[in-house]
Structure formats: C-alpha cells, structure tokens
Amino acid sequence: MSLYLKQNETQSELQKRVAAELQEKAKKRALETEQPDGVTDSAYIKDTKQTTSLAWVWVLIGIAIIVIAIWLIVATM
Prior knowledge:
Blueprint: H1 13-32, H2 55-75
C-alpha cells in the first residue's frame, strides 16, 4: 500500500489517524489507572481468613529454627 503525500504536508492521513488512535488509547488507559490499587484485583482475598491470635507462636517457632540452624553450623566447625 502506498500513500501519495503532498509536498506541503508533513504528516500523511495514515500517520494522523494512527496518532489520534494512540492518543485515544492513552486517555482511556489514564482514566482506568485512576482507581485506587486493589479495587479491581481484590478477588484473591475472597475465602481467606484473618490471622489468628496464635500467629506469634509461628514467629517463635521460626526464630527457634533459625537459632538451632546457626548453632548446628557453629558447633560443627
């Protein structure tokens, strides 16, 4: 496909049309991103439960595992 360009025009009709479409897409994308984060993608939270009051026990178990691993490494040197 070839386009005839007049010598006094700097952009062809196709270039003008593509530029207008890109500007329109950019405006739509800008409007979509104005929503706060999590409004459209919060479905992953569905059917989850809140952390129980025993969460600190898991933290202590994790710390104990790390301490034991460090002790074993130091003791074998």
